[in-house]
Amino acid sequence: MSGVVGTNLVAQVGFIVKDVEVTKVKWAQFLGVEVPPTVPVGEYSITRTTYKGEPAPDASCLMAFFDVGPGLQLELIQPGEAPSTWRNYLNEKGEGIHHVAFQVNDSKEAIAQCEAFGLSLEQHGIYGDGSGEYNYMNGEKDLKCIIELLESYKK
Question: CATH no. for residue 111?
Fold first, then answer.
């Protein structure tokens, strides 16, 4: 086991952007790759999003993903208007790096380890296709960013 969450391999870097359509074209040009599709976060009936411990049925975003290396993804996130970690970041800080993500095998254990380290759970949700979950841990005080824990459910 390495580090607080059992791995030190970064799986994703997420950026908050005002306009995912414009930004994804620029990133595609920069990387020399095809422009990826834009995908919505998914319906609340599946995602069951919570923000700061409360149900957040209106939390939404549009996302685009680039695979930029073995096991590494760049994510662009355009927040919806409702309160969420994404909207909060855009309102308070503007566009920029929102999170660094790690793939974990056991979200509950990883959350507990993060909390013992001093991070707090800010937002939780199920992937829009139901295949896994994400947990945003607020690490801004010490780590200067949000830490995202990604768990893919076993089939």
Answer: 3.10.180.10
